[in-house]
Amino acid sequence: MDKNEMNRLSLEEQIALYAGQLTAMAKKSGVAAAIAPSPPEPKPETEPEPEPLPPPNQTVPPAALTPAQQYEQFAAANPERGVIRLQALTARSTYPVPGVLVTIAKEFDSGEYVVATQRTNNAGLTDPVSVPAPPRSLSEQPGSTVSPASWYKVTLLHPKFATVISPSFPVFSGVSALQTIEMIPRSASPNGNEPIIYNVTEPSDL
Length: 206
Known about the structure:
Blueprint: H1 3-8, H2 11-29, H3 67-77, E1 80-90, E2 95-96, E3 101-108, E4 111-119, E5 129-133, H4 136-140, E6 149-158, E7 161-172, E8 176-182, E9 196-197, E10 204-205
Parallel strand pairs: 1-8, 7-9
Antiparallel strand pairs: 1-2, 1-5, 3-4, 3-6, 6-7, 8-10
């Protein structure tokens, strides 16, 4: 095709003609014409890295025990029993206080476990409550540092009297403890609405 014929063709026809010529030349030379670039190959998906293992000497701590589970273990380790019994009195131990809500609990690092809850009768007395206590034989061994008592938290509540808390009430194996607690009317309490802390050294035997 001469130059005059090329001028008579439209631009689109000239482009098509030129592309055909390029394709023919590529076929003759044995090289495939690259009309469009080939799509990139997909990258392989990377697997998530595994979590690192703990050091060989490091142990995984067990799940934390509940107060009930810790009390169960405490009772198994202290198979002997002691007895707690309280009497709520007022006016310098002259009159009994009935209807006092008494809670006996054991405190652990996981929390507080309530062993018993009851109210005092007309004589201001609670029913006896049997609780675990360590064997006396452990404390009687030479050089032993084991306490002969187990310790409980006792709380006394009454709407007309100041709250009384004994944070460390001792209980000994084979001993039925009767402990009198002085209840002070709220209007006469030196602590106002604050609880009165009552420290018990050793309750009397019944």
